[in-house]
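Chapter summary example.
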Amino acid sequence: MIIDLSHFKDVRVDTNQQLVTVKGGVLMKELQIALSEKNQFTTVANGNTVGAIPYMIGGGISSYTPLIGYACENIHSAKIVVATGEIVVASETENSDLLWAIRGAGQFFGLVTELVLRTHSPSLMGPDGVRQLGNIFFPTERASEVCSVLRDVVSRNDHASAGHFMAMNDPSKGRILMVAAQYFGTGPELQATYQPVIDLGPLDHVHLPSTFEKHSDHLAWMCPKGEFKRFSQTGLASINPENFGRLVDLHRELLETLPGTERSVFTIEWHTKTPSDGPRKTETSFGLKNIDTWLLDSNILTWYTDPALHDKVLQFDKRAQEIMRSDTEENAFVSYTNTSRSDPIGHRYKDAAAVSKLKELKQIWDPEGCFTKELL
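The structure predicted for these 376 residues follows.
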């Protein structure tokens, strides 16, 4: 059964309480516009057409995580349709255990129709509430070299940033590498932080300031409907330049072997650490909240036009994950709950005590598995 909430949309911002109420069908761009009009922001995904609530309740890793934590850590309260058909309110004072579950595992307990989220002043991002974008381009044969220098830059704790190191196919440039940095501070600070990467002599580099409203506009090319896309995220213990070089080689093999996959993108994603105070103190069920390795992950976007290629594309996805995990013991594997939903639960939720509590709550709220058999 598919329940379509696409027309169930509303965003209400309370600037006095710094809260925003989001209905089930709201998309990221709609949330960004509404918050920007009130000079507020919150944790959002990289994609204008991503559904706000599914993203939030699954954890919600974000470019803004270094500032305000994961999306689930910013959930204030929720309304959820449970297995009995009732609409239940979950808050700190009413069904608080269910609220804890919704913050990171809400998809297992019912249909979340409304979230109330904490919002923040854009001044946290830097002067004038603007974040800095820096795109640095290199030829693909320099993957390991650039990755080695980038690893040293993003491992520092003297700044707040996030970004992707991408192997992609540009229609005008062909296969290319792009360091896509998002920096919270001034333009000169961005330049100084990434100067070691620029000193390698890129093909080109550009700097663009960006507002919260336009957070994902530069990724609009990834959002059109139709065709076939698969997105998986694998947590990394560290940035391994040799492994990334192998991943770039696999990206080339994919494009050369399977026609119609030219828009596929393989990346390493990073986020500097979030301060331990503020949202990080919120109790959540998100299974990767305290995993330092989650500050790094590999994103595998496979995009293809022919459904007959599905199984072959899936094999490339698996090979990509194997490459990036080749230096990690299986008991330390980390998979993001929002995008790798079929992976073992021990990869998606690393806290055994939290999993036990989630299973107990599943027996209370959905004992027959009306919404999913997970946790039963």
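To summarize the output: The first helix runs from residue 28 to 37.
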